[in-house]
Design brief:
It contains 20 helices and 13 strands. By secondary structure, it is of the alpha/beta class. It has a seven-stranded mixed β-sheet, with helices on both faces.
């Protein structure tokens, strides 16, 4: 009964379409001779389509309309679930299939029992290594019935700190502690006491902490050539700075209609990007590094860019090998494809801006002068010599920073907003970071940079001359990574540990690195390290089958485990052990 009225309404439109079709045929008339050879193929395709249509109609005879609708709906749901399961995931299909296979293998009774036995052994070895200096320690597991006096607390703390397994103050540790300038340490202690109860969450109560934070952010933007539009916030460390950048670009991607944003990082990029992706549900696309230069593979990055890419990452330098990524080329990719570029300068943030003025003109461009660079993370608690828990995330302009903010305009407790992850923040860290930056100034940071890069290159040159070792990449700033094809590099690390040195173990490929700090620039420290490496390497060349022991052995053997979930579980056991009090 509704067919006639509907036909009456759509008839003019059908005639209009017919007229347009005739007009189109008129325009196509000149190329008709070129199209005639394809007519038989088109006709054949149409015949096959007609045959398929008739076959489907024959199969559907006797099926009621509601059944056809339900079948279609069910198949659509199944296909939608399949597509979502296979493609809309943070992990690749290969990784998920691999995880499923390893889980199935571990369910096998004999194999599962062997794995559990080995894991218990490794767990015990880790705990023994962690607690070897705490034998007989008595833990405080409950509050004291009455509070300790100041004298009792200081005596207790002295007991806690009397045994230090590594002489970090003597420069025996890689990284960890970046500077211990005595005058600055006492000055920051005084400032910390003055600001101990301040909180920038309340700028109306503590306006001076707001001013200090704004000033130190502006100083950092100036260091990285951010210009008048450059902006940023302070964070609690490099991990939070990276997480905030990822949150900002995720928000920007959502605003642009991207439902599952992807970030492209090199395998040498800091694990904080993986943590951020885990928290924020971002898909990580990992690209390889050039095995010769240890820099990210530009061709692989270009190939990985797609419509869901929300962020490209370059490191200056990356933590593992210390070779600066080709930031300028990544910037060009960002401009070409309209994708923001983040430069992770957490490690080199207070070295690279001063390197050229310190006399090192071979440092490539890495900052906001590159048009594609839209954000930079920079740790002030490393080579800025501020207390631990301070870092800066900077953006090219406010439009990016706005995506980092959290606001809640409808909360019953009032309008709430915070610039980064925490709500309350220690104003004392802002004040002491400001103090450190004002204390050193440009001339102080230039001199520190000169010392550190000079020692880094001295160690790198010496390592290249050690038979049996080779240096990964071209370390220009503060990290020297070494590996060996003649002996177990972790055996070298173990031997150095017995001489008091603590290096950072690396994997894929197996290597160790020394992160140079001001402590290593003290007289004789670098020379002692070089001498000890030379002597240990000579011993290993004479006995190349020597194996590492303790934690070094565990770290070395973990790389041979194909099921990385086992390594993850062992890591969780280590974290559990850190909280053990029995």
């Amino acid at each position: 009964m509704f067919i006639h009225p509907v036909a009456t309404v759509i008839a003019p439109y059908i005639e209009l379409v017919h007229d347009y079709a005739l007009t189109a045929l008129t325009y196509l008339e000149p190329i008709r001779p070129y199209m005639e050879p394809t007519v038989p193929y088109i006709q054949s395709a149409m015949d096959q389509l007609h045959t398929a249509t008739q076959a489907i109609n024959t199969q559907c005879e006797g099926i009621q309309a509601w059944q056809l609708i339900m079948y279609t709906f069910s198949v659509t749901l199944i296909l939608s679930w399949a597509v979502s399961s296979f493609f809309d995931s943070e992990d690749s299909l290969r990784v998920r299939c691999s995880n499923w296979l390893f889980r199935a293998v571990r369910r096998a009774p004999i194999i599962g029992q062997l794995i559990r036995k080995e894991m218990e052994k490794s767990k015990k070895d880790m705990e023994d290594g962690l607690f070897q200096s705490e034998a007989g320690t008595k833990y405080h597991n409950t509050l004291p019935e009455t509070g300790f006096t100041a004298e009792e607390i200081l005596q207790e703390i002295e007991l806690y700190t009397k045994d230090e397994p590594i002489d970090w103050q003597g420069g025996k540790a890689s990284g960890a502690v970046y500077g211990t300038e005595k005058t600055l340490r006492h000055l920051m202690s005084t400032v910390f006491e003055m600001f101990i109860y301040t909180n920038p969450l309340h700028p109306d109560i503590f306006p001076y902490t707001r001013r200090m934070e704004a000033e130190l952010v502006r100083m950092c933007c100036h260091m990285f050539n951010g210009g008048e539009k450059g902006c940023g916030t302070m964070t609690t460390g490099g991990t939070e700075s990276i997480l905030m950048a990822c949150r900002a670009y995720r928000g920007r991607a959502y605003a642009n209609g991207i439902k599952l944003p992807e970030i492209i990082i090199c395998v040498s990029a800091h694990a904080a990007f993986l943590k951020a992706a885990h928290y924020l549900r971002l898909k990580v696309v990992e690209i390889p590094e050039n095995p010769r230069t240890q820099q990210l593979d530009l061709k692989a990055m270009r190939k990985a860019i797609n419509k869901n890419t929300c962020m490209l990452v370059a490191s200056a330098p990356p933590f593992p090998h210390g070779t600066i990524d080709p930031v300028e080329e990544v910037s060009k990719l960002g401009v070409k494809y309209g994708v923001p570029v983040h430069v992770d300068c957490c490690l080199g943030g207070f070295l690279l801006p001063f390197a050229r003025r310190a006399g090192f003109t071979d440092i490539p461009v890495f900052d906001f002068t590159l048009p594609g660079v839209t954000s930079i993370s920079c740790d002030s608690h490393k080579y800025g010599y501020a207390p631990k828990g301070s870092s800066i995330i900077m953006y090219k302009d406010r439009s990016y920073r706005h995506h980092q903010y959290f606001t809640s305009p409808n909360w019953s407790g009032g309008i709430y907003a915070s610039p980064s992850m925490p709500g309350s923040r220690p104003g004392a860290l802002i004040a002491t970071t400001w103090t450190a930056m004002m204390y050193y100034g440009e001339s102080g940071y230039i001199e520190c940079t000169r010392k550190i890069i000079t020692v880094t290159r001295k160690i790198a040159s010496a390592m290249r001359d050690v038979e049996g070792l080779y240096v990964l990449g071209d370390p220009k700033v503060c990290v020297v990574a070494i590996a060996s094809k003649q002996f177990n590099i972790f055996a070298l690390s173990d031997m150095l540990h017995k001489r008091g040195w603590l290096l950072n173990p690396l994997q894929f490929p197996s290597a160790v690195h020394m992160c140079v700090t001001l402590l290593h620039t003290e007289a004789g420290v670098a020379d002692r390290f070089i001498q000890d490496v030379q002597q240990c390497a000579t011993e290993l060349r004479n006995n190349p089958h020597s194996k590492a022991q303790g934690m070094a052995a565990i770290y070395g053997s973990s790389q041979a485990i194909p099921d990385r979930s086992i390594v993850a579980e062992l890591t969780e056991c280590f974290l559990d052990a850190c909280y053990k009090t029995d």
